[in-house]
Amino acid sequence: MTVNSHRVRSTRKTQIFNHAGCFIEGWYWAIPSSKLKAGQVKPVTLLGRELAIYRGTDGKVVALDAYCPHMGAHLAEGKVEGCRIRCFFHNWQFDEQGKCIDTPSLGKPVLVSVRTWPTAEQYGMVWVWTGETPQQPVPFVPELQDEECNIAFGSRFVKNCHPNVLLINAIDAHHFNTVHNLPLQIVFEKRELNQNAITFSNTTRGGEESFLIKLLRPFYKNAVTYSMCYWYGSTGTVTLGPDFLHFHIMFALRLIEDGKTEGQTIMITRKRSGLGGWIFNRIVLWLTQQVGNYFAKGDSQVFQTIKFDLKTPTPADRSILQFIEHVEGQKPLLWGTWESAKD
C-alpha cells in the first residue's frame, strides 16, 4: 500500500472505524456460559440494548428484548418455565421465539411478541448475533477451527477508547520495537477469511544479530509465529509461540457508552485427552496468560489516554490502514438501537 496524502485524508474521514455511535453487525459476547444455569434468566446490556437472556431446561440459551410488551416490566424479573419465560408482573408467558403464548387474565394469549436474537456458545461464552440471521460464524481461532478446546478466563477490563482502536495495537508493527523492544522487524501479510474476518500474519525471520532471536531460532522453521485474526472489528484472536506449541488468546471486546471498550481475555488451547492432557492444558493456559500479561503490561496506559488520529501514517502502519479499510467495508449498526447506520 502506498502511503500518501490521499490515504491520510481518507483514513481521517472514516464513517465506521472508531465511531462512538456505531459498531459492526456480528457476534458479540454477552455473558459467561457458567453464569447462566438451566432455568436462570439474567439481565444483560449489550451494545446499548437491554436484553433478558435465559437458559431453558433443555439447555438452550434464548436472548430477547428486556421489556414485556404489556406494561414494560423487565423480563429478567420473571421466571423460566421449561423453555419459556413468564413475566413476573402479570404472568404473561413467551416462548423461545418471543411469541406470547399465555395471558392468564384473558384466558387466551394476546397477539404480541418480544424481539429475539440468535445465540450461540463458544469458548465459555454466550454470544449474541446483533441482526436477523447470522451471516458468519462465531469468532474462532483459525488454527483451532472445529477443534474441541479448553479455556480459561483472564482479566475483564474497560478502556477509554473504541474497540477498533484497541485492536490495532496487535498489528502496530513498529510498537513491537519501541514498546516491547523486540529485536526484529515485523512485517504483516493480510488475508481475508470472509467479509467479517481478516488475518495478519508475520512473514519475517530477521533479528539474526540478536542473542534472543538466535536462542529462539531452533524452535521456528520459518518466520516467528505471530498471527492476529479480527472478527467484526471488535474481537481478535492472537496465535504465537514456537512451532511445537502455539499459544492462543482471544480479546473479546464490545462497545460501551461514550465510545469506550469493555473486554474479556480468554486463553484457549486444543483439548487433550486423559488426566495427563488435562494437567498439561492447565499449564499451557497458565503460560498463555503470562504471555498475554507481558504484552498487555507495556501498552495499558496508552489506551486510557489515546485520542486516535492517524495524521501521518508511515510504511510501518500499512497493516493498520488495511484493517481500517476492512472495517469500513462491513455493515454498521447504531449503538443502542441496533438499526442500520446507513439508513
Description:
The protein has 343 residues and is α+β, with helices and mostly antiparallel strands. The chain folds into two domains: 34-118, 3-layer Sandwich (Rieske Iron-sulfur Protein), CATH 2.102.10; 142-334, 2-Layer Sandwich (Alpha-D-Glucose-1,6-Bisphosphate, Chain A, domain 4), CATH 3.30.530.20. It is 19% helix and 32% strand. It has seven helices and 20 strands. It has helices at residues 5-12, 163-168, 175-178, 211-216, 274-299, 302-305, 318-328, and strands spanning 22-24, 27-32, 41-46, 49-55, 61-65, 79-81, 84-86, 93-94, 100-102, 116-117, 119-122, 125-129, 149-159, 188-194, 197-202, 226-231, 235-240, 247-256, 260-270, 332-334. A seven-stranded antiparallel sheet has the order 13-19-18-17-16-15-14. Strands 3-4-5-10 form a four-stranded antiparallel sheet, with no helix packed on it. The chain has a four-stranded antiparallel sheet with strand order 6-7-8-9, with no helix packed on it. A hairpin with a 6-residue loop joins strand 17 and strand 18 (247-256). It is globular and about 75 Å long. The protein starts with a helix and ends in a 9-residue tail after the last strand. Mean pLDDT is 88; it is low at 1-10. Pfam families: Rieske. Residues 28-128 form the Rieske domain. InterPro entries: Cholesterol_7-desaturase, Rieske_2Fe-2S, Rieske_2Fe-2S_sf.
Summary tags:
single chain, 343 residues, alpha+beta, Rieske Iron-sulfur Protein, Alpha-D-Glucose-1,6-Bisphosphate, Chain A, domain 4, seven-stranded antiparallel β-sheet, four-stranded antiparallel β-sheet, 20 strands, 19% helix, iron-sulfur, iron, 2 iron, 2 sulfur cluster binding, Rieske_2Fe-2S_sf
